[in-house]
Amino acid sequence: MLIKNIRLKSIEARRYVEPDDKPKQIRIDHNSQISQVINNAEKNLTIEFQYTASYASIGMIKLEGTIICEENDAKQLAKQWQDTRKMPDQFASNIHTAVMHTCVPEAVGIAKDLGLPPPIPLPQVRLGSDPKIGQSQGGIEVA
Question: What is the reported pTM?
Answer without folding.
Answer: 0.80
